[in-house]
Write a structure and sequence with these properties.
The protein has 2 domains: about 120 residues, Rossmann fold; about 110 residues, Rossmann fold, CATH 3.40.50. The protein starts with a strand and ends with a helix. It has a 6-stranded parallel sheet, with helices on both faces. It has a 6-stranded parallel sheet with strand order 6-11-10-7-8-9, sandwiched between helices. About 30% of the residues lie in helices and about 20% in strands. By secondary structure, the chain is of the alpha/beta class. It is built from 7 helices and 12 strands. Helix 2 packs across helix 3 and helix 5 packs across helix 6. It comes from Paraburkholderia phenoliruptrix. Its EC number is 1.3.1.106. This is Cobalt-precorrin-6A reductase. Keywords: Cobalamin biosynthesis, Oxidoreductase.
Length: about 240
């Protein structure tokens, strides 16, 4: 059977990992919880760019690379495609469909942090759901703003920000309660897609709140791309 290297760190990747075998490898960057109940081996840490990943593929006799990383992990995805191509093995990718604005949505699309902060200038109480990036900008909070930052990391609150350490999936009822309690006036989000964190968009729609949405980075074309975990797993079962 083909030995698989699964590049993960997402809920989708974890679901795929539960269908692997003891000879396969699930690779994590080391950010967040490391699962200890999987049937496959778990590797934590980087590879050293595409060349390091290529060496790992060749040394471990990997026959298939599966990229199930976050849609915003563009560098990892590029390294996966390049390393697999150089090693002469296939690279499959899970490309989760992006969310699409619905009737009543007020999305303000931005490409980087500078555009994001400019779009936030009129607001006072933003909820950031971008992961840990806002933590590096806590000393830049404008005098008229108080930030709420939801991410995996536990981090001390500051005089100008509250850090909400939480891991999805998030329920609609829970999001409604959070938005009502904290009275956010704008939501800041990546267009991650999937259902685990989508409830926040419905609550923003219900409350008439704008969403400052960070556009997805371009991702390289893999040998095969899948829009759902179920499709990828079905193909994997047929191929093995």
């Amino acid at each position: 059977m083909t030995r698989i290297l699964l590049l993960g760190g997402t809920g989708d990747a974890l679901r795929i990992a539960r269908h692997l075998t003891p000879r396969d490898v699930y690779s994590l960057a080391g950010l967040g919880k490391v699962p200890d109940d999987l049937p496959c081996a778990v590797r934590v840490g980087g590879f050293g760019g595409s060349e390091g990943l290529q060496r790992y593929i060749e040394e471990k006799a990997i026959g298939l690379v599966i990229d199930a990383t976050h849609p915003y992990a563009a560098r990892i995805s590029a390294n996966a495609v390049q390393a697999a191509r150089s090693a002469g093995v296939a690279c499959w990718a899970l490309r989760r469909p992006a969310w699409q604005p619905q009737a009543g949505d007020d999305w303000r699309m931005v490409d980087d942090w500078n555009e994001l902060t400019a779009a936030l200038a009129p607001f006072r109480r933003p909820l950031f759901t971008l992961g840990r990036e806002p933590l590096t900008h806590l000393d830049e909070i404008p005098a008229h703003q108080f930030w709420f930052v939801r991410c995996l990391d536990a981090h001390a609150d500051t005089a100008r920000a509250r850090i909400l350490a939480a891991r999805g999936p998030f329920t609609l009822e829970g999001e409604r309660a959070l938005f009502a309690l904290q009275a956010f006036d704008v939501l800041v989000s990546k267009n991650s897609g999937g259902g685990a964190t989508e409830a926040k968009l419905q609550v923003a729609r219900e409350r008439g709140l704008p969403v400052v949405m960070l556009r997805r980075p371009p991702l390289p074309a893999a040998d095969r791309e899948f829009a759902s975990t179920a499709d990828l797993l079905a193909t994997l079962r047929l191929s093995n």
